[in-house]
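Table S2 (text version). Query chain:
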Amino acid sequence: MQFLIISGLSGAGKSKTLSTLEDLDFYCLDNLPEDMIPQFAQHCMATKSKYERVALVTDVRSGLTFEGLAPALEQLDRIGCKYSIVFIEASDEALIKRFKETRRKHPLTKDGSDLLAAVERERKLLEPVRNRANYILDTTNLSSAKLRGELAGLFAGEGQDHAMSVNVLSFGFKYGLPMDADLVFDVRLLPNPFYIPELKHHTGLEKPVRDFVFSYQQSKDFLEKLEDLLSLSLPYYVEEGKTNLVIAVGCTGGHHRSVAIAVEVAKFVSKLGFSTSIAHRDISRE
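Corresponding structure-token output:
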């Protein structure tokens, strides 16, 4: 079981961190008091099939102090729960700007403290937690997308080279563009099996159609250049924090060329280490 304890400064990005981890298939829990962490861990360990990857946030909202967290961590050690602490921080200036922009109240201003004093007090209060952290992420100059990218790089999951999943979709332009497509490639420039009587009623999933499409050098050249583009661009999408990408390949009717090319694209993307799925939107249309 992967067990992450998220803590850090208010306004630094703990909520965004938790939502990103949820996208990475973590079971997420916000604002858990530190004395409840061992009980929750025991419950997760007893039902491993449901809680293989867990992330929880605990911070000053639940009255966190080093004295309260230390016994909880010791108890985690005793029950054999391996854990990592992720600490999220930012500069005072960045935190104050965020609070002013959102007009949210800092949890430590309830006693009448001004915002800067509350930030400084919280930083000092959480210093022992920061000192025990396995990962420290400074979000001062990180956009939300960059933060997602950082987290994906750290916690994509065992057996996954990349956190982003890629859906490859073939379609027919005559039926309209896929609304959820991120990248659209038009293969209507390739020789069309539709005009070959013995191939007209077959699809790009069948060997005769595929052999016809790739018997032409322009088809091979097109696929080679497309693979070069994907090799370059997909890692940048991951870096920007994208978790799902839809690559749409279209021909006129969505039966022949787009299907054959989409199959090869999906094979290539999978070899790059991405979780890949493929669908043929219009293959069954007459």
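Notes on Table S2: The longest helix spans residues 217-239. The chain has ten helices and nine strands.
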